[in-house]
Each structure stands twice: as structure tokens, then as C-alpha cells.
Write a structure and sequence with these properties.
By secondary structure, this protein is an alpha+beta fold. The strands form 2 sheets. A 5-stranded antiparallel β-sheet has the order 4-3-2-1-5, with no helix packed on it. It is globular, with a radius of gyration of 20 Å. About 25% of the residues lie in helices and about 20% in strands. It has helices spanning about 60-75, 85-95, 105-120, and strands at about 5-10, 15-20, 25-30, 35-40, 45, 50-55, 60. It is built from 3 helices and 7 strands; from the N terminus they run E-E-E-E-E-E-E-H-H-H. It folds into 2 domains: about 5-45, SH3 type barrels; about 50-120, Arc Repressor Mutant, subunit A.
Length: about 140
């Protein structure tokens, strides 16, 4: 799973993909509706590949968290982010039992599941192709 170039902007719902760099800004494209607009240095931008979830041992990168969730859900959508916090926590414990319940808030879990479902919708999170085909041997036919 490649989350490179996908960002979150504080104060704006959804996820965005970096489309281009401007002189004093960055041009982003919404994953929801594909509209492009500039984002300036005053906006707080977070790259998804830099976000981690608190666990009791060490922080776990979002890519690893989404890998675990995708395997549990068979690379399909998960629980709605609008579900009650208790249900979101129970679902999180299924694939990430070591997450720190004291430092991970319900709002964090809502974003986690909202983003996951959006990334599945937009085919960013997809099932890796299993190569069951054996290497084909090339047989050379000699001309007589």
C-alpha cells in the first residue's frame, strides 16, 4: 500500500493527493470529488505516511495499521466512522489489540476508519495480487 502523496488538511474533511507544487503553495486534488485547489503554508498539512497510532510498545505507522485492517476486512470497507466510539474501539481491538486506549481518542478512531473506507473506495488500498502462476519455461524449438 502506497500512501505517498496523500495528505490530510486540518479543518477540511477528507483526504487529498498532492497534484503539483506552486510557487508559494501546493496544489492538491480531493479524493472525494477530484477538485483541485491551492493549499498555503499557513494550512496545517499532515502526510498519511507520517502519521502513527499510539500502542503500548511503540507507535505504529498508519500504513501498517491499514495493512492489518485490510487483511481483517479482506480489503473491503470496514465499520462506518459514524458508529459509536465503543464499537470503533472494539473493532480496533480486533486487528490492533496493543493500541493505547488512553492516548487514542474516539475522534482519532473516527478518522482512522473514515480514511480507510475512503482509501478502499478510491482503490488506494487493494488486495495484492497473488501470483499462483508458475514460471513458464521457454522451450526453444529447433528447426530441422
Amino acid at each position: 500500500m502506497d500512501l505517498k502523496g496523500i495528505i490530510s488538511i486540518a479543518g477540511k474533511a477528507g483526504l487529498y493527493k498532492v497534484a503539483a507544487n506552486g510557487r508559494n503553495n501546493v496544489i492538491v486534488q480531493s479524493l472525494d470529488n477530484n477538485k483541485k485547489f491551492p493549499v498555503f503554508a499557513t494550512d496545517k498539512i499532515s502526510a498519511l505516511e507520517d502519521i502513527s497510532i499510539y500502542t503500548y510498545d511503540e507507535d505504529m505507522p498508519l500504513t501498517k495499521v491499514y495493512d492489518k485492517l485490510a487483511e481483517l476486512e479482506d480489503y473491503k470497507k470496514s465499520i462506518s466512522h459514524k458508529a459509536p466510539g465503543v464499537e470503533l474501539r472494539a473493532k480496533t481491538e480486533e486487528f490492533l489489540p496493543e493500541f493505547d486506549e488512553d492516548r487514542v481518542f474516539d475522534g482519532d478512531l473516527k478518522k482512522l476508519f473514515q480514511w480507510y473506507n475512503l482509501l478502499v473506495d478510491k482503490a488506494v488500498i487493494i488486495k495484492p495480487e497473488v501470483s499462483s502462476k508458475k514460471e513458464t519455461e521457454t522451450v526453444s524449438v529447433e528447426e530441422e
